[in-house]
């Protein structure tokens, strides 16, 4: 490989890192670097590629599910359903040490399976549940770690926006990806709960039980009736995943069904009015515009990067390493982990997937299994500083007594659990492949 190609590769990577740490908007960094290097080393054709990348992304029918799922998640937030479910679960689990944290994780699992939007979930959990846990003596590090990690489950458990973006990039069915991460996603939630219960036994003052006199104010009937609030979430899960599962609709149309179901739930709770609809549409438009801007200019950056030989440099370096296929695989996971700490996951995926997927296939890894493993690793990007969007979502709504340092300290045990899940999925590939093979073949 010639020295110029290597030099271009190094300059583009260094420029990307400088742009990230400079604080500029990421889509401008990606687009600006691609335009500069494209014009200098490729020619005027690079300019035309900007519009081509935009139209290619806009014509991708699968990506239409993004605004629909964002709308669905925001509408679920407005319905007030999370507060009702948490109240019911806290009454049932309050006698257990760590019971409130377990209730938060269960609500997070339910919302993850019905929204797929991390920001809305973390903010909702932070506003409603963090004060309740702190008021009952929970350690701030454990309480914030539970909310950040539980709230970010939505990026992995279907319907997930990340899977919708990842699938077309890797030329993998989004439906297959949905099935592939269902078991790992649910297992991750279970591992979180096990950790909380063990931690509560080791350090009882970290997660005390709710006082008995407080729980005795409610009858068993009231506690059981409260659980009925879970059914509306079940309706949305069935509307989205059920329509895909039974072959009624592909993911894009299922997103539309889910958005409509979320509106019905909000209507049933008397939360649907013109003001709520206007706010939901505004936030949906704002978030979707941000995602699409990164998609357009991220695709432009990757196209220029690959055209100038960046992909060949990475491929030759990785395939020439004397570590074997699993050593290369671990290096790719580490690259995903580090990029997730430094930049937005959307831009990172746009860079990683086109480069790593062909290498993984050449090494003999199952494409679906490899895609699911990368997606599981991207789960860490939401709670690993310095980027860590979930941490900043929570900090924005947390009481002033909770510091950023406490939030950052609280998430690291959950990062370790995510790494443990990756190891389990590597040792037992059927955790990923069994369900899609069973349902799709």
For the secondary structure, the number of strands is 0
Terminal-residue CA separation:
41 Å
SS strand fraction:
under 5%
Secondary structural class: mainly alpha
Order of helices and strands: HHHHHHHHHHHHHHHHHHHHHHH
Q: Radius of gyration from the CA trace?
A: 22 Å
In this structure, how is the largest beta sheet organized? none
Mean pLDDT: 85
| Number of structural domains | 1
Poorly predicted tracts of residues: none
Note the overall shape.
globular
Approximate helicity band: over 70%
Number of discrete helical segments: 23
Sequence-ordered SSE layout with sheet pairings:
Layout (H helix, E strand, L loop, with lengths): L2 H20 L3 H16 L3 H14 L6 H14 L2 H13 L5 H14 L5 H11 L1 H6 L4 H12 L9 H10 L3 H29 L9 H4 L4 H7 L3 H16 L5 H18 L5 H34 L2 H10 L4 H19 L2 H18 L4 H12 L10 H9 L6 H24 L2 H10 L2
List keywords for this structure.
single chain, 441 residues, mainly alpha, 77% helix, globular
Question: Care to describe what's here?
Answer:
The chain is mainly alpha-helical and 441 residues long. The protein has one domain. 77% of the residues lie in helices and 0% in strands. The chain is built from 23 helices and no strands. It has helices at residues 3-22, 26-41, 45-58, 65-78, 81-93, 99-112, 118-128, 130-135, 140-151, 161-170, 174-202, 212-215, 220-226, 230-245, 251-268, 274-307, 310-319, 324-342, 345-362, 367-378, 389-397, 404-427, 430-439. Helix 6 (99-112) runs antiparallel to helix 11 (174-202) and helix 18 (324-342) runs antiparallel to helix 19. The protein is globular. The mean pLDDT is 85.
């Amino acid at each position: 490989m010639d020295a110029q190609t290597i030099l271009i590769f190094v300059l583009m990577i260094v420029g990307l890192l400088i742009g990230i740490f400079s604080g500029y908007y990421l889509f401008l960094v990606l687009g600006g670097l691609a335009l500069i290097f494209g014009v200098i080393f490729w020619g005027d054709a690079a300019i035309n590629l900007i519009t081509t990348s935009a139209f290619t992304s806009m014509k991708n029918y699968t990506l239409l599910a993004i605004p629909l799922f964002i709308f669905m998640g925001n509408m679920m937030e407005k319905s007030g359903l999370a507060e009702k479910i948490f109240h019911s679960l806290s009454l049932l689990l309050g006698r257990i040490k760590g019971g409130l944290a377990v209730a938060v994780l269960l609500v997070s699992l339910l919302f993850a399976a019905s929204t797929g939007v991390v920001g809305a979930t973390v903010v909702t959990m932070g506003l409603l549940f963090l004060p309740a846990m702190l008021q009952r003596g929970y350690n701030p590090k454990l309480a914030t770690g539970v909310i950040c990690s539980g709230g970010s489950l939505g990026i992995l458990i279907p319907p997930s926006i990340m899977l919708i973006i990842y699938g077309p990039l890797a030329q993998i069915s989004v439906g297959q990806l949905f099935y592939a991460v269902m078991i790992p996603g649910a297992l991750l939630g279970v591992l979180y709960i096990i950790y909380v219960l063990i931690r509560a036994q080791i350090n009882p003052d970290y997660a005390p039980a709710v006082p008995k006199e407080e729980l005795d104010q409610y009858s068993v009937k009231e506690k059981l009736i409260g659980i009925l609030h879970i059914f509306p979430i079940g309706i949305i899960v069935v509307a989205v995943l059920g329509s895909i599962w039974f072959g009624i609709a592909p993911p894009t149309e299922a997103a539309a069904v889910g958005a409509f179901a979320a509106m019905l739930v909000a209507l049933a709770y008397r939360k649907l009015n013109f003001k709520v609809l206007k706010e939901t549409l505004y936030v949906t438009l704002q978030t979707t515009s941000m995602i699409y801007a990164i998609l357009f200019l991220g695709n432009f950056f990757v196209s220029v990067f690959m055209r100038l030989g960046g992909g060949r440099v990475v491929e030759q370096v990785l395939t020439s390493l004397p570590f074997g296929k699993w050593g290369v695989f671990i290096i790719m996971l580490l690259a995903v982990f580090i990029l997730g700490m430094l930049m937005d996951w959307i831009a990172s995926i746009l860079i990683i997937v086109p480069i790593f997927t062909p290498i993984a296939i050449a090494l003999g890894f199952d494409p679906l299994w490899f895609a699911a493993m990368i997606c599981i690793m991207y789960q860490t990007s939401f709670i690993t500083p310095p980027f860590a969007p979930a941490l900043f979502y929570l900090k924005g709504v947390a009481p002033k007594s909770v510091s950023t340092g406490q939030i950052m300290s609280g998430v690291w045990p959950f990062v370790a659990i995510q790494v443990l899940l990756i190891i389990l999925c590597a040792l037992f590939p059927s955790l990923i492949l069994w369900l899609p093979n069973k349902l799709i073949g």
